[in-house]
Records
---
Amino acid sequence: MVTQVRPPRPDEMSAYYRVLPFANGLPSWEPENAAWHGGSEPWPPQRPPANTQRLEQLAEADINDASFHPVATFVDGMCVGASATISFAVTAPGGGTVRMAGVTATGVIATHRRRGYLRRMMQAMFDAALDRREPLAMLSASEGSIYGRFGFSPATYRTRWELARHEAALRPAEPDPGTLELVGATQAKQAWPKVHADVRACRVGELAPLPGRWDGLSDDTDGTNGPLRYLVHRDRHGEADGIANFRLPWSPTEDNAGTLVVEALEAANSTAYRALWSLLIDFDLTKSIVAPGRPRDEPLRWMLTNPRAMRVTRQTDNLWARVLDVPTALTQRTYLKHGELTFTIDDDQMCPANNGTWHLGTDEAAVTCVPTDKAADLTITLSALSSLYFGGMSAQQLACAGHIVPHADGALGKLTQMFRTDPEPHNSFGF
Ligand SMILES: CC(C)(COP(=O)(O)OP(=O)(O)OC[C@H]1O[C@@H](n2cnc3c(N)ncnc32)[C@H](O)[C@@H]1OP(=O)(O)O)[C@@H](O)C(=O)NCCC(=O)NCCS
């Protein structure tokens, strides 16, 4: 038996794409009232698995995409495993961007599972990402028990909340000098890139969009979910500084009737943010508002006269992070508090150059991260460091769970003060 783990050749891309339908089950059924799944809609429209023609189209598109890096497992010439990384830029604490390998489209066909093929593909993808000077990898995990062993750990959250319209009163605020406009898909496609660029410059965790990110926006009806509608906010100079995509889906039950679903909302400043929400939470002929993919620290809560009116109905991890190159990743972000920290990593089997004791130093001029012979303030697992990288997770909780072992008084406090970010990191879309 000859096993190869390598990028597929262009003529092998169709076979590569056939792995996923044979790895994944059919989409799991979920009652509409549960109203949750991984996407941005309140519940997924029923979509059949991709047909052969669609797989060919995907293969063709990916062959021509320089940011898409597929890897496959071949056993005696047959493609049995597939995964890929997409080269992204992600906003790091401080507002700079870090190159990141986004792991996606992972599957091993049912007859070849548990033989170590995913592990080998993951190693190949990490090595290739390091060659491309991408110090970070990220992914969204279909199951929480698979990816920790490769060093991935949750880095951001995603929250779904509901608000009853009759409870959704806003606290008074200064008058808005800007304007709101309901627009069609053509104008929404123009507004989204500008608004997202402004937002991601100051929101940690946001991704630079791939080309064509908003091409799919349309005015067409999507089954019973109805058409997507677009609300744009413009500042006093007429520049778009906020936008929301929302729907008013048909409902099979009285309970869910009159629900306005906010599938996406981004605003570059608090005036635009408040203006968009103030219209959406008080839309005539609606009863409730549902927002499925929101940041955990949604400021709208604090704008309500009754903060408890916003009911969180689901919260889950969103993107997971994996530091591939510790000194490069850590010197490409800034720190809330300047200081010095020495830490030991001794558990990275896939990127062994990360193991050792590191001295992280930050001051007004620079951030440095270099090997040191000094005693470590703490020992931290690679996955815990990955969770802390974007500043949204708690060092105290990770230490309580044994991922961080402090060796010096105050070490944990120092780690917290240096790494935390506020607002929390958030990904308004994944990959
Ligand atoms: C998940 C999947 C990609 C794993 O591939 P695989 O080749 O079987 O994985 P490996 O044999 O390399 O296993 C690597 C490790 O992960 C573990 N593992 C694999 N799948 C797992 C699962 N579903 N749950 C928990 N652990 C899992 C293995 O036990 C092994 O552990 P070890 O290193 O401690 O021995 C494959 O089973 C699959 O395609 N499943 C269905 C589709 C899917 O879930 N894809 C994920 C999309 S994000």
---
Amino acid sequence: MFVDSHCHIEDEEVLKRAFDAGVRVLLNAGNDLDENDIALEMAKKYKNVWTSVGIHPDNVLDKLDKIKVDDIIKASLDDNVVAIGECGLDYHYGSDFKDEQREMFLRHIEASGKTGLPIMIHHREAENDMVSMLKEGLKKYPNLKGVIHCFTSTFEFAKEVLDLGFYISASGIITFKSGSDILEVFKGAPKDRVLIETDSPYLAPVPFRGKINEPKYVIKTAEKLAEVWGVSLKEVSNITMNNFYNLYQKAKR
Ligand SMILES: [Zn+2]
């Protein structure tokens, strides 16, 4: 039994295929809390399917005047919402609106600190600002916790966020030839801080690369971890499931 700790799905057929493949726990991440109705309805309808509320960094400019800390908190109160996010900093695509991204990310940190819900972080090419914002957040909210989802950065950055108590999440990228450096990060990471995900519909793992990704393919990422950790697939399944529930405590087994 596997968990997909970060996907974006709107189709119940995709969900059923995941269940059939043995992927039984899913976090269907919100990336625009004004448009999260489908994910919320699916989470209400299916056991072990959860959702989150947040504004993806790509969507920040439209929402800066509209979505405040209290709006995020209010949307997070539903029983099926187990995390704040996805949110964060993307300086690859959003290099011309960094200030706005930081402002919106700060609101999510506040919402996470105030609700106690973990923060699900999108991060790309913003290492210094990410670490300093998380450190600031931890000063104000010592219990702040969360995950860098779809981790694609360096060993040094991984060490910094792990030292701050955060988790890192492996996507299909670790199955790519070009993902070998990232795979090395997961090989050396403490096993109790690693999650697995698809980020579907993007980033399908090998041998499905280029196709539409689905949660059922999370098993390919788990197989890669089993290989580099030198443990069985079953152990990876157990470890990553336990890690998921340790982080997202509002999700009940
Ligand atoms: Zn995502």
